[in-house]
Write a structure and sequence with these properties.
It is a single chain. With 502 residues, the chain is of the alpha+beta class. Among the domains are: 106 residues, Thrombin, subunit H (Beta Barrel), CATH 2.40.10; 94 residues, Roll (Pdz3 Domain); 100 residues, Pdz3 Domain (Roll). It has twelve helices and 27 strands. The chain has a six-stranded antiparallel β-barrel with strand order 1-2-3-6-5-4. The protein is globular, with a radius of gyration of 31 Å.
């Protein structure tokens, strides 16, 4: 009996549940019917034309700007004949043992030549065919081809180039008048400004990406000798180099030039050369083929808290003179090693990049008034600015890199060399890895104690990228004597961090 009662109760419960469910469903259907027939407060809000007008206006602005600017943006393809020389590093028995088979040279190799092809972008600055692009796009080019927005193709001639800012001017001879880009001013740019980056990423012509200006006056990136970059999150990829960065008025405010990346791809940080810097160089590039710059003849470095304490300085601004070249303008004016430059022509000097950039813009032959501190005393010096020597200009403004570089910090005793094509090929190092390779370490140095080895690739110093020996030296010379340093290295294809402590 109990069992059957349970069954009946169970069936009764199911019937009751079904009845409730049926009533509930009917109720819902009735509510839906009434709601469709009579819209009420529970309806989702409708989208009116007024609500979307701001978005449509912005969309229209993007379309209008793109249509106006794209005709003045060009695709640039280059062919270069590259000669690679055997690097002395390959004669080191250690590297033969460390990396194995690739070092079967049998007494050395002759220089080898190979053809490289690359793609970039540019923009038209005159109706008769003058085009601005990056220096690195046409650096070694033996043949430069320009493709316009109408798909017509022309051979181009390099008119002028400046490796120190990565700017170049090329010229084509078109059959008709060309559309010219509209100049803007980088002085009017602020963080948050909406920008469009245009060019030919990965060879995809007439491509447009959108973002904002993320930061201004980025320097000490180790990209160029003179740096004052606009930082943007508008996607810049390989092939975008030399293309314009424009505002919503269709004005060019910068030239796309580089990205920050850990894997070779776009990661949200791109850099553009301010258009005001580009415009300043155009006259020299188009008439002289090079840029004439002011020059003091000093080696300088930033004032760190350690340096400020050692030199009894009131603050951390200014620039320390670490060396004065003989017979240079600075030497003739009486400047000495250990001087700290606080001001130039009545304006404060913030750091080494600030001073270097401002001096470069002074015409040779003009005077520069410098405010300095020497042995705790303030002084004024008048320097007749000279012209940056041609050999320094072509080398990016740096002195020749010595075989062994010494620093008064934990990096002393590390001898590095560039990752050129020869080393990459012999050691099977992919292009995605950048930096400098250690070819010697002094016995007893902090580097040796930290576990660094010959063959390690230094990719970053204190999380800042190292691209070549020049950027390595630039970063290393700014490290204080008692400062810790964090290196990002690549060993056997794997990344790791190495901390060096004094």
């Amino acid at each position: 009996m109990k069992s059957s009662i349970r069954k009946v109760l169970s069936l009764g419960a199911i019937g009751l549940a079904g009845l409730i469910a049926g009533l509930t469903l009917a109720s819902h259907l009735n509510w839906i019917g009434n709601t469709i027939a009579k819209p009420g407060k529970s309806d989702p809000p409708s989208i009116s034309q007024k609500d979307i007008e701001p978005g449509l206006a912005l969309q229209k602005a993007f379309v209008t700007v793109s249509n106006a600017v794209i005709p003045s943006v060009v695709n640039i393809s280059t062919t270069s004949l590259i000669t690679t020389h055997p690097n002395p590093i390959f004669n080191d028995p250690f590297f033969r043992q460390f990396f194995g088979a690739p070092f079967n040279h049998g007494g050395g190799e002759a220089p080898q030549k190979h053809v490289e092809r690359s793609l970039g972008s540019g923009f038209i600055i005159s109706s008769d065919g003058y085009i601005v692009t990056n220096y690195h796009v046409i650096k070694h080019a033996t043949k430069v081809t320009v493709v316009l927005s109408d798909k017509s193709s022309y051979r181009a001639t390099v008119i002028g180039k400046d490796p120190m800012t990565d700017v170049a001017v090329i010229k084509i001879h078109p059959k008709h008048s060309l559309p010219v880009i509209q100049w803007g001013s980088s002085r009017s740019v602020s963080v948050g400004t909406i920008v469009l980056a245009m060019g030919s990423p990965f060879g995809l012509t007439q491509s447009v990406t959108m973002g904002i200006v993320s930061a201004l006056k980025r320097s000490n990136m180790g990209i160029e000798q003179y740096e004052n970059f606009i930082q943007t999150d508008a996607a810049i990829n390989p092939g975008n180099s030399g293309g314009p960065l424009v505002n919503l008025e269709g004005e060019v405010i910068g030239m796309n030039t580089a990205i920050y990346t850990t894997n070779g791809g776009y990661e949200g940080i791109g850099f553009a050369i301010p258009v005001d810097m580009v415009k300043r160089e155009l006259k020299d590039l188009m008439t002289k083929g090079k840029v004439v710059r002011g020059w003091l003849g000093v080696s300088i470095q930033n004032v760190t808290p350690v340096i400020a304490k050692q030199f009894h300085l009131p603050g951390h601004t200014g620039v320390l003179v670490s060396d004065v070249l003989p017979n240079s303008p600075a030497s003739k004016a009486g400047m000495k090693r250990g001087d700290v430059i606080l001001g130039l022509n009545g304006q404060d000097v913030m750091d080494a990049n600030d001073l270097r950039l401002r001096v470069s813009q002074i015409l040779p032959g003009n005077d520069a008034e410098l405010s300095i501190i020497r042995n705790g005393d303030r002084k004024s010096l008048t320097v007749r600015v000279g012209e940056l020597p041609e050999k320094l200009s072509m080398m990016g403004g740096q002195s020749p890199v010595p075989g062994n570089t010494h620093f008064d910090n934990v990096l002393n005793g590390i001898d590095v060399t560039n990752l050129d094509n020869g080393i990459r090929g012999q050691l099977n190092i992919p292009d995605s890895i950048s930096g400098v390779i250690i070819q010697a370490i002094a016995p007893g140095s902090q580097a040796e104690a930290s576990g660094l080895k010959r063959g390690d690739i230094i990719e970053e110093i204190d999380r800042h990228p190292v691209r070549d020996v020049r950027s390595y030296i630039n970063a290393a010379r700014h490290i204080g004597k008692r400062e810790n340093v964090l290196l990002t290295i690549v060993r056997n294809g794997r990344h790791s961090y190495v901390s060096l402590s004094p």
